[in-house]
Amino acid sequence: MIFEERKWAELAENMVRTQIAARGISNGRILDALAKVPRHVFVPEELRFMAYDDCPLPIGYGQTISQPYMVARMTELLDPKAGEKVLEIGTGSGYQAAVLAYLGAKVFSIERIEPLAKRAQDNLRKLGLSASVIVGDGNKGLPEEAPFDAVIVTAASTEVAQAWKEQLKDDGRILLPLRLHSGVERLLLLIRSEGKEEEQWYDYCRFVPLLPGVEKTM
Ligand code: SAH
Asked: Which residues participate directly in catalysis (predicted)?
């Protein structure tokens, strides 16, 4: 199967219509971002023919680029505003970071596997998107760039790390897939406002696990 580069915009529009709008996401800014960010750029070459399909895809090192709907859903729940400072934990391919940056957020994204971080940073730069990728352990956040308006975690965590809370503004939100039991994960949106924190629970989902430390690669 050959991926025809010149057809990607058509494939992306079709993806938005049949997978994202059809499942109830109606925010025009988010639908536009999903239609305009070239997802195939973030997918390994041999899988590009599947880049706009309704599924996650392997990106190497045992990691995945999330399903398009999940990226749209998490973006909708996080609702980034232009100019906001957003911290992403788990850069992976860089696609989620690209969507957030396309919406005008100033994105800092942490990845523990260096070659993935490098590939993601190259692709983001090529597309002219404002997102910085940092190699590190996302459990520690990024104190040098704190405070953040929002934190988005794209690997399954068993807890809301203290560092993410400490590095969040007084009015801010944290979105993550929280692992409740083995095999059961659910999106949790933690909203901090006027000194109070509110928890909102959303979709059940499946993510690769948030791991400790930085991967040793050669
Ligand atoms: N948002 C990505 C998908 C993420 S897959 C995309 O759009 O493609 C989850 C990623 O989190 C993997 O690349 C994994 O290596 C990374 N990860 C897992 N634990 C981490 C940690 N503690 N710190 C930083 N990255 C981590």
From this structure: 66
Ligand 1 center to 12 CA (angstroms): 24
Domain that holds residue 100: 66-205
Indicate which CATH number applies to the domain containing 193: 3.40.50.150
Residue identifier of the C-alpha nearest atom 16 of ligand 1: 90
Catalytic positions are 66
Residue 215 lies in a domain: no
Let me know how long the chain is: 218
Pick from 86, 89, 95, 179 the residue to mutate for probing ligand 1's pocket: most ligand atoms within 8 Å of its CB.
Answer: 89
Minimal CA–CA distance to 29: which of 87, 83, 80, 95? 80
φ and ψ at residue 208, rounded to 5 degrees:
-70, 155
**Residue 44 forms part of a structural domain:** no
Asked whether residue 109 is domain-assigned, the answer is yes
pTM of the model: 0.97
**Tens-digit pLDDT string for the chain (218 aa):** 788 888 999 999 999 999 999 999 999 999 999 999 999 999 999 999 999 999 999 999 999 999 999 999 999 999 999 999 999 999 999 999 999 999 999 999 999 999 999 999 999 999 999 899 999 999 999 999 999 999 999 999 999 999 999 999 999 999 999 999 988 999 999 999 998 999 999 999 999 999 999 998 75
Number of domains comprising the chain: 1
**Distance between CA atoms of 212 and 210, rounded to whole angstroms?**
7
Looking at the domain assignment, is residue 58 inside a domain? no
**Secondary structure element (H or E) that encloses residue 88, with its range:** strand 85-89
Q: How far is the CA of 83 from the centre of ligand 1 (A)?
A: 24
User: Which residue among 39, 66, 211 has the greatest number of ligand 1 atoms within 8 angstroms of its CB, and so is best to mutate?
Assistant: 211
Tell how far the Cα of 194 is from the centroid of ligand 1, in angstroms.
Answer: 31
